[in-house]
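Before a colleague's protein record goes any further, I have to sign it off. What it holds is a sequence and that sequence's fold in C-alpha cell form. My question to you is simply how this chain folds and whether the C-alpha cells agree. Thanks in advance; the entry in question is below:
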Amino acid sequence: MDDNTGRYYIEDGVIKESSQAQDADTHSGVMIYDVIRIIEGTPLFFEDHYTRTCKSFEAIGSVCGIKANELKDQIRRILEANDNYNCNIKYIMFNENGRARAIGYICKSHYPTEGEIKSGMPVGLFSLERENPNIKLVDHDYKKKINKIKLEKGFYEVFLVDREGNVTEGGTSNIFFIKKDKIFTAPEEKVLKGITRTHVIMTCKALGYDVIETSIPADRIDEAEAVFLSGTSPKVLPVSSIDNIRFDSANHPVIAAIRKAFDKRIQEYLEQS
C-alpha cells in the first residue's frame, strides 16, 4: 500500500485508519489487483473491471472471493470515509490460509492536464516481457523496473518490447499507432486487456476506423503518423515522442476524434449508472 493516499482504507469489509495499515504487499501468495477510476462517485466501467478480476482468478485456478455488489458497496464506503469522490481506487485480492481477503484504498494517480494533452507526452522503449500479460498480478519487481526507467529518463510511460522485438504495451497502459486512418495495436494475447483499451477500440470502430491487432516491430514505429496510449487515469493521451522519434500526435485529427468520442462514451456511462 505504498501508493495509498487516503486517510482511510478498507480491509475485509472493515474501514480502518491508513496509519495502522499492515501492507498487503508483504503477502507471499498470488495477488490479483485492479484500479478503478471514480468520477463523481461512480466507478467507471465497473462491470468490466469486476468481470476481468473474476477471469484473472479463474486463470490461476481460483475464484474471486467478493461479489460484485459487495465490491461496489465497499468502494462507496471508502469514498464516503475519505470524502473523496473523484479518484482512483485500488483493490488487492488474495487467498490467505483458505480465506478470501480484499484490501481497497485510494491510490496515487495523475490525470493529464490540458497542457499535457495539447502537447502530448514523451515515452521510451524498454525491453521487458510480462509472463502473464492477461492477468493483473501484483508484481513488485516489474513495478520497480518501470518506475526506475521513467524517473531516470523523464518519461511519462515506457513501451515494452518483447523478445521478438515487437512493441506490446505500456508499463501501465495500452498503445495505439495510427497510419493512413487505420489504428494498429498489439494482439490481445500479448497485452493486458485494459478496460480502457476495450472501450477505446469500441469507440474507434464506432467512428468507422479499422482497428488492426498485429505485431508492431519496434524498428518500424517511425512509420506511424501518430501514437496514443490509453489507461485508467490518462484515458486517451497523445504521445509526443518515443525515445528520439517525434510525433505530432496532439494535432492529429484521428486522435482528436477518438478523444472526443471516448469522453462522450464515458459521459453516457455515467448518466446511465
The chain has six helices and 16 strands. The two ends are 29 Å apart (CA to CA).
